[in-house]
Write a structure and sequence with these properties.
Layout lengths: L1 E3 L5 E8 L25 H13 L9 E8 L5 E7 L13 E5 L7 E5 L1 E8 H7 L5 H11 L2
Antiparallel strand pairs: 1-2, 2-7, 3-4, 5-6
């Protein structure tokens, strides 16, 4: 999701992964809200579903989307993305689904953690520092599509 603040200023909505592994990580750790695509689900439908599950925000599938293509992250995960002009309603509180992780490691104890522990809009310059390096290409593609 992005929003045009002024004619020349755009902000993008990024999410910070929850859980103990990302607790003290910031730059290079933020990501677009995303997730796994179950067999049989179309990537675009999965993107809408995952966005809602991770943020609590529902995007109208009839909105105008920009196809940003895909990137392969360092660990090998292929990420497809679409951009949509939007904003969070006033007073919106992040509502993310959870994941179960053995914590502390090898303890045999499992804890639930939110998949996303925070999300916010960032100006492009800041977003470039915050976002997973492989996903920075999405920012370039968004700006290119907006200036055509």
């Amino acid at each position: 999701m992005y929003r045009q603040v002024t004619v020349s200023a755009v902000e993008v909505f990024l999410a910070h992964p929850g859980g103990p592994f990302f607790k003290n990580k910031d730059e290079g750790s933020w990501t677009i809200p995303k997730g796994e695509i179950p067999e049989g689900e179309e990537p675009f439908a999965a993107a809408l579903r995952e966005f809602e599950e991770e943020t609590g925000l529902r995007i109208d599938p009839a909105s105008k989307f920009i196809d940003l293509g895909s990137v392969r992250q360092k660990g090998g995960k292929l990420v497809q993305a679409w951009a949509v002009d939007g904003d969070c309603p006033e007073g919106h509180r992040l509502k993310s689904n959870t994941l179960k992780i053995e914590w502390p490691p090898r303890s045999g104890k499992f804890q639930d953690f939110p998949e996303i522990d925070r999300a916010e809009f960032f100006p492009l310059e800041t977003a470039r520092r915050k976002i997973n390096p492989a996903q920075a290409a999405f920012l370039d593609r968004l700006i290119a599509a907006m200036t055509q």
